[in-house]
Write a structure and sequence with these properties.
25% helix, 29% strand, alpha+beta, FAD/NAD(P)-binding domain
Length: 322
């Protein structure tokens, strides 16, 4: 049995977990991602004066498989626990983890040793004579793959796989929602006794002082995540309007006058939250030689993304085209 030639589209945690499992089994694996760095929504935005984890805010661990990964990452200094101050002094009962010095440290570590093609947005798939050809947004082609793994949000995976195989109906049943994220850095620290807060607010349910996480430096940096319905209504709004609305809501949430803003940036995640998951760890269309993985298979959690990709890799590690 010859090793398979796998293309993995998406270098988020699910795609990386799948790629690592396949590479460890001896297959030839190439990972493609449109971004300049691996991580997907485990993303960190950095400037000279500040940094923000503007996608995933933290992660939890509940399974032995993910625990083994997190423990190994901690030994190499990639992750640490975070104990934020919550409103009223109450404590989150779960152990919260973050990457250090940014949330993207974990996927960067997992990507080490993989064949990565970053800054490469795959926009088309063609299959002929049992082999896949990928085409990017500049017209370049990448040929000779036996199997394609789509580690993308379900709507993006459905669009890319359209016309190939039978997965479209299953993917269409998955529900995902957008999220506007606002990144703020203040000229002086915000006078507030809390570092993080979640509440069922119709505009701004999540606020976090990113600079309170371990091994962060620079200005007092905050990340605000808008409500899913609010984000959907404001999806095509100008970034300046979103910035003004969410900054004003932060002041209301904190019941405080905010210091002058040194830096502000609004980031739109079109597929941020899992509203209706697939309900199984991954999806495989063997006839089409396509596989699908992501947090949307199981739950809106970092661990779910890893478990989905790892499960898909486990299903495919013995794959052959005979």
């Amino acid at each position: 049995m010859r090793p398979g030639r796998f293309a993995v589209i998406g270098a988020g945690l699910a795609g990386l977990a799948c790629a690592r499992r396949l590479a460890a089994a001896g297959h030839a694996v190439r990972v493609f991602d449109k971004s300049r760095a691996p991580g997907g929504r485990m993303a960190t935005r950095r400037v000279e004066q500040a940094a923000w984890d503007h996608g995933a805010q933290y992660f939890t661990v509940s399974t032995p498989a993910f625990r083994a990964v997190v423990d190994a990452a901690r030994e190499t200094g990639q992750v640490d626990t975070w104990s934020p101050r919550w409103p009223g002094g109450e404590q989150e009962q779960r152990e919260l983890w973050v990457g250090v010095p940014g949330i993207n440290a974990l996927p960067r570590w997992l990507a080490e040793g993989l064949d990565l093609s970053l800054g490469t947005q795959i926009v088309g798939l063609e299959r002929a004579h049992r082999a896949w050809t990928l085409r990017d947004d500049t017209g370049r082609t990448f040929e000779g793959f036996d199997f394609v793994v789509l580690g993308l949000p379900a709507p993006q995976a459905a669009a890319l796989a359209a016309g190939h195989g039978t997965a479209a109906v299953r993917l269409a049943a998955v529900g995902m929602a957008p999220c506007w994220a606002l990144l703020l850095a203040f000229e002086r620290p915000v006078e507030s006794p809390l570092d993080a807060d979640w509440s069922p607010d119709p505009v701004l349910p999540w606020i976090a002082r990113n600079s309170a996480k371990p091994r962060r430096s620079g200005l007092d940096a905050w990340v605000l995540h808008a409500d899913a319905e609010w984000s959907r209504e404001w999806l095509e709004a100008e970034a300046a309007r979103v910035t003004a609305a969410l900054r004003a809501r932060l002041a209301e949430r904190l019941s405080a006058e905010l210091p002058p803003v040194a830096l502000a940036e609004a980031h739109r995640w079109r597929h941020a939250r899992v509203i209706r998951p697939l309900g199984e760890p991954c999806l495989v269309d063997e006839g089409a030689a396509l596989g699908f993985c992501g947090d949307w298979c199981l739950d809106a959690r970092v661990e779910a993304a890893f478990l989905s990709g790892d499960a898909l890799g486990a299903r495919l590690e013995g794959w052959n085209d005979d």
